[in-house]
Amino acid sequence: MFETAVDDDLITRNPCRIKGAGKESAAERRIATVAQVDALADAIGIRWRLMVYLGAYGPMRPEELAGLRRRDVDIDNLVIHVRVAEPERTNGKRAPGPTKSDAGARVGVLPAFLQKEVKRHLDWFAEKGPDGLVFVGEKGAAFRRTSFGRKWRRARAAAGLPDGFRFYDLRHTGHTLSTRSGATLRDTMVRAGQSSEKAALIYQHSGEDRQREVAAGLEDLVLAERAKNLF
Prior knowledge:
By secondary structure, the protein is mainly alpha-helical. It is built from 10 helices and 5 strands; from the N terminus they run ααααβββββαααααα. Residues 27-216 form the Tyr recombinase domain.
């Protein structure tokens, strides 16, 4: 269990194989605060802010966001169906295909505070029709890694995050807050789309009802952190 969690970046080290099990690793994960995630979303612009929030609180990988379609998003039930991944090759072309593993294909339950963000984005920016891409560039084409990367670097600097902070690191914020809200390692692995197929079989019993509980706990923590920043 711990080995597969390490492989998918859910925990830093495996306490079952190191001396002094349970001690924190010296090499800490880069974890953005709730305020920093909000600052990133504000700085990157209204077209891309939902991508930041889904990266953190989905939590979704960049290639999964690239392949997200309108039909994958159920606003009323706060559910996103992660079905495919579309990584970008070095030649700039997309390579549509399955998710990182069978476990990567999943149903993600979003915290309720994202409902307004999702609805606005679909109304304003997503392609039309059920197969329309959720995230497209300013000219209406599938977004490119290079152009998004420039926006990301500017937003990262504005949010006061270090140069080494990657979009992928947003997932660690979601993992950390979910754990603080009471999610088990099993819950977190399912929510993250754990890459190990063996782990997927072990953890498949963290179903949608339980994921709704985790999303509700995540919602409470994010709103509490935002309230602190008002004073």
